[in-house]
Write the structure tokens for this entry.
Amino acid sequence: MTLFVKAARPTFTAPVEISVAGEGDDGVPEKHTVVMEFRRLKRTELAEFLKRETHDMDAIKQMVTGWRNLPDGQGGTVPFTPEHLDALFEIPWAPQAILNTIVNQGMGASRKN
């Protein structure tokens, strides 16, 4: 009998929808979808992370390894840098959206296996 274990890449990508309070008169939040790259957690690492009562921003930031198509508001995109990651985490709803994506993707992967 042969045991096959698929070698997983050390990272994965997933779309993250970040809502930002709208600047229009209608009060509707602007939604931006950014494809982000995350460090892949092992099942045990994810379980340990989820056991924590609080999730500090630094722990979440350490899981983000890149992004694509983050709009700069002027028709271009924002490159991934530690400074830009810090700025993204200053948007009130961004850290929670990122955390939700990490958890949902991790739980989905563990359900499939």
